[in-house]
Write a structure and sequence with these properties.
This protein has 2 domains: 146 residues, HAD superfamily/HAD-like (Rossmann fold); 68 residues, DNA polymerase, domain 1, CATH 1.10.150. It is 43% helix and 11% strand. α2 crosses α3 and α9 runs parallel beside α10. The two termini are 29 Å apart. The protein is an alpha/beta fold. The strands form 2 sheets. Strands 5-4-1-6-7-8 form a 6-stranded parallel sheet, with helices on both faces. Strands 2-3 form a two-stranded antiparallel ribbon. The longest helix is centred in the N-terminal third of the chain and has 21 residues.
Length: 235
Amino acid sequence: MMWRFTGAILDVDGVLLASPHERAWREALDGFADPAAFTPELYRSQVAGKPRRDGALAALVSLGVRDAEVRAEDYAARKQARLEALIAEGRIHAFLDALRFVLALKEEGLRVAAASSSKNATAMMRAIPMETGGTLLDALDVDLSGRAVAHGKPAPDLFLAAAEALGIAPSACFVAEDATAGVRAAKAGGIRALGVARFGETASLEAAGADLVVASLEEVDLQALGEGRLARRAP
């Protein structure tokens, strides 16, 4: 039996917001490795969506840094300090298609959760005003950003916790993710995955198991969600 979707679980960085996470990781790398080697591709494939220390370790290992296991905690701390400075400078903006998508989901009767590994996501969403009043955070039913779970992405723990917080079975939810780790986490939890390829990473998201990949959330067929399908809107 195919369930209609009644819940949406959205990642924050890369799906809802263009946050300065990638920039912070790159600039904090000075002293560990050449920051220029921290490419967008490395960020999306090795770091995005993972808990902070896991992302730091993955980046250092990928770049061949000696004693990566020992140095990961220091790198993660430097990244966090740099990120907080960038947030204070207002280096955050929302993707307009994402704001419209959240409102459209609510109009369709879906409950919406944010589920990000980042502990900074809540504060960033609170800084984004909505045209309908309030903030992006106010528009959500549940925010599990930075929630401590036993296992980070690509394990499904965070998304399963989000479904539980929404009061909806995982099979009646979908996850929107821009990172392969997030797509794998959704699929591991029996949740269908919408890949958001804002920077052309369609192939990697499909390889990770995404049920549908779009470049913009405006491509999603909202009517199909009521039929339990992730589908592209007809041109």
